[in-house]
């Protein structure tokens, strides 16, 4: 629960910061000032841009959370897509606001894109990136949870990543070995070792029937066997070099 609250709080702070920046951008820089817009209209424009930016960031935060819960990872590619999505949403909604009866703006779409959106994107993107990086650093590191799913609806196991010891093949199932209060537990899930390895690439294959979490490696028992936390497993020649290189 603390991790969820921290995530919500830091996304809220970024949204407020971005909306404040867009208010400053619109009111003081006046990106499309043609001399006919009075102070009241600039306030409407600035408040509108500010609220729209907050709304757009809120939407992408929801999308980001949904994507992360499904794939359980986040990388630079997802981050770029999120930034592009923010600017696209901001373009569509601000243009609709600009052409509404409230402002009744005179720019066409292409002119609006060139004069306003591209200018704001060039300035706001570095600010958004820095804000996201800084806000993440403010959140204490939490234990990362993983969710292992099988073919059946009831085949599901949610554990901390660091508690996963190994995964072994068991005919049409895989057997998950994990720690609960320092005691080893197991669960059978209808899946394949190949799929588990694809879903959780931090696991290392040491045998055609075994994947291990390398953080639980303790020592070599002999040339063909290793000790893990409360378990020992065979190592095949095909995967021995990979394990030695870790």
Automatic annotation (TrEMBL):
<feature type="transmembrane region" description="Helical">
    <location>
        <begin position="110"/>
        <end position="131"/>
    </location>
</feature>
<feature type="transmembrane region" description="Helical">
    <location>
        <begin position="41"/>
        <end position="64"/>
    </location>
</feature>
<dbReference type="Pfam" id="PF04397">
    <property type="entry name" value="LytTR"/>
</dbReference>
<keyword id="KW-0812">Transmembrane</keyword>
<keyword id="KW-1133">Transmembrane helix</keyword>
<keyword id="KW-0472">Membrane</keyword>
<feature type="transmembrane region" description="Helical">
    <location>
        <begin position="12"/>
        <end position="29"/>
    </location>
</feature>
<dbReference type="GO" id="GO:0003677">
    <property type="term" value="F:DNA binding"/>
</dbReference>
<dbReference type="InterPro" id="IPR007492">
    <property type="entry name" value="LytTR_DNA-bd_dom"/>
</dbReference>
<keyword id="KW-0238">DNA-binding</keyword>
<protein>
    <submittedName>
        <fullName>LytTR family transcriptional regulator DNA-binding domain-containing protein</fullName>
    </submittedName>
</protein>
<feature type="domain" description="HTH LytTR-type">
    <location>
        <begin position="154"/>
        <end position="245"/>
    </location>
</feature>
<feature type="transmembrane region" description="Helical">
    <location>
        <begin position="76"/>
        <end position="98"/>
    </location>
</feature>
């Amino acid at each position: 629960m603390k991790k969820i609250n921290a995530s919500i709080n830091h996304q809220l702070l970024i949204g407020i910061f971005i909306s404040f920046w867009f208010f400053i951008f619109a009111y003081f820089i006046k990106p499309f000032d043609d001399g006919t817009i009075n102070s009241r209209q600039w306030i409407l424009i600035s408040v509108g841009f500010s609220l729209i930016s907050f709304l757009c960031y809120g939407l992408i935060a929801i999308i980001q959370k949904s994507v992360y819960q499904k794939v359980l990872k986040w990388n630079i590619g997802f981050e770029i897509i999120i930034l592009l999505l923010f600017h696209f949403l901001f373009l569509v909604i601000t243009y609709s606001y600009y052409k509404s009866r409230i402002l009744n703006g005179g720019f066409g779409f292409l002119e609006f894109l060139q004069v306003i959106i591209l200018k704001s994107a060039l300035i706001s993107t570095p600010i958004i990136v820095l804000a996201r990086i800084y806000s993440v650093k403010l959140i204490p590191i939490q234990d990362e949870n993983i969710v292992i799913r099988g073919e059946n609806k009831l085949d599901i196991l949610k554990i901390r990543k660091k508690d996963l010891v190994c995964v072994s093949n068991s005919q049409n199932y895989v057997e998950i070995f994990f720690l609960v209060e320092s005691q080893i537990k197991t669960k059978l899930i209808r899946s394949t070792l190949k799929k588990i390895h694809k879903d959780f690439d931090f696991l290392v294959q040491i045998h055609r029937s075994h994947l291990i979490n390398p953080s639980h490696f303790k020592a070599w028992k002999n040339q063909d066997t290793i000790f893990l936390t409360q378990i020992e497993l065979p190592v095949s020649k095909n995967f021995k070099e990979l394990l030695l290189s870790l």
